[in-house]
Every structure is written in C-alpha cells, then in structure tokens.
Amino acid sequence: MRILLVEDDRLLGDGLVTGLRTLGNGVDWVRDGDAALAAVEAESFAAVVLDLGLPRRDGLAVLRTMRGRGDATPVLVLTARDEVRAKVEALDLGADDYVLKPFDLDELAARLRALVRRSRGRPVPLLTRGDLELNPATREVRISGESLALTSREFELLSLLLEGKGRVQTRRVLEEQLYAWGESIGSNALEVHVHHLRRKIGGDMIRTVRGVGYMMMDDEAAGA
Ligand code: CA
After folding, report:
1. What are phi and psi of 216, to 5 degrees?
2. From ligand 1's centre to the CA of 78, what distance in Å?
3. Among 65, 67, 162, 208, which residue is least crowded by beta carbons within 10 Å?
C-alpha cells in the first residue's frame, strides 16, 4: 500500500523508508509539516505515518488541518515517551493509532495494516476470490490451500485488485499505489507484474480493460 511518511529525523526516516519498502509498501517521505499537507492534498495514501515534532508546522497542526478539510486518511502518530499530552491530543484530533519511539518496525507495520483495514470497513482480514486467498497480515497467498510465492510488488498489486474486485482499476491509480514519487517506472512495468501474476494465479482472474486498466473478475462473473 502507498504510505506517506512525515519524519524530520534523517536516520529514523531512512530506516522507516527502507523497512516499509522491504515489506512491499510504496513510501513517500516528507520532512516537514507543510510538505505533509501538500502531499496529502495532491495524492491519495492508504495511511500517513506522522511524527509530532516537525519543522514549519508540527504534527498536531498537520492532523488538525487534515481533519478540518475532511481528510479521513488513517494516521499513525509517532511519539516520544515524554509526549504523553501530545499523544492524547493527537488521538482527540483524529489520529487512529500511535507508537512510542523507539518502536519495532514489525509492530508499526502491523498497526498500519490494522488501521487501514479498519478504515476500509473490512474487519475480516482475508481477501478472497474463488479459491484464491490473500492474508494481508501474514502476507500469505494460497490457491486451494497451496501456498504461492509472490514478489512484494506482485503481492501489493494482487491486494489492490482483490480489494477492488469487480471494478475496473485504472493504470494510473494502480501505479500511484504501487510506486512512490520519483521511483522510475518502466512504461510497461505494470503489464509485466500483471503478466507474472497471471502465470501464478491463473490467466482468467484478471481482465485487461484496453486503454483503461485492469479488473479482478467477480467470483460469479468468472463462473467460479
Ligand atoms: Ca521529529
């Protein structure tokens, strides 16, 4: 999923970007509050990881402005142990969750997945289509119970297609969710991932809608 990271500490930011990308997320990193607001206005993110102590405009001000604009993007706040008041204030302002620094990357990633899931009104974490089953929490994909090995991009693409099952998803939206700004994308990178996915999950599940994008076929529509 596409995540906006707002963190001014270079070392921490670097570590988070690397860690979250390794887990298959598209991560955009901005280092101050103004840039954060510009980013959430310009793009849509599955979640925002928001540090509170930031230059130009602090995390609480960012959150207040976002919620004031009616922006409901899930926000996970990063706080230091001595920022108890700020943490409470952040939750009251509409933050969805928080982690205390220093934190464990796996825990942060799990909390992110949980809050994105809640925000999409999906209490059951499994995504399914026919006998295909994707577990966002364990990152396991199975077909008829058989485990399937996917690259992290293939996994993300399959998640997006399953979440939008039965709806056409445009190339642009898919690419926006899969890649961060400035990441060089070959013009046919998406096709290549779809091609590999089809080879692994079977050719009839993903329909190409020429000139538009792709669609994960509904269970009924494909006769599954
Ligand atoms: Ca900071």
Report:
1. -80, 120
2. 9
3. 208
